[in-house]
Design a protein that fits this description.
- This protein is an all-alpha fold and 109 residues long.
- The protein contains four helices and no strands.
- Helix 1 packs across helix 2.
- The longest helix has 22 residues.
- It is elongated.
- 0% of the residues are buried.
């Protein structure tokens, strides 16, 4: 199979790191870069394949939503109970990274 040359431009420190990694892997720079790019492409292909069905579902939902009128959500007809209010606060805290005691993981109390 015929080979094609591709030219890339790198910062000097990037080029040196690649040379060092290629050497440690027992490969020349060209083979090392081809191996790294091939591995990255295989990973991307696998991810795209794994999520293809979800992506198609989202695309269908977005197309369907484009035809819907832009109406505001109706106002709630009843107030939340105290327990529902606590549940909402707890859920929002988890979304924003706070545990049940109101602390953010990885931060001092």
């Amino acid at each position: 199979m015929a080979k094609t040359r591709i030219s890339i431009s790198l910062e000097q420190d990037q080029a040196e790191r690649i040379r060092q990694h290629a050497e440690r892997a027992g490969m020349d720079v060209s083979a090392y870069l081809v191996h790294a790019a091939t591995r990255q492409m295989a990973e991307s292909d696998a991810i795209e394949e794994q999520f293809a069905e979800v992506d198609a579902l989202i695309a269908r939902a977005e197309r369907a939503a484009d035809g819907l009128p832009a109406e505001l959500a109706p106002e709630p007809t009843t107030e939340l109970t105290e327990q529902e209010r606590r549940d909402v606060e707890e859920a929002l805290g988890l979304v924003h990274g706070r545990d049940r005691q109101g602390r953010r993981p990885g931060h001092a109390a």
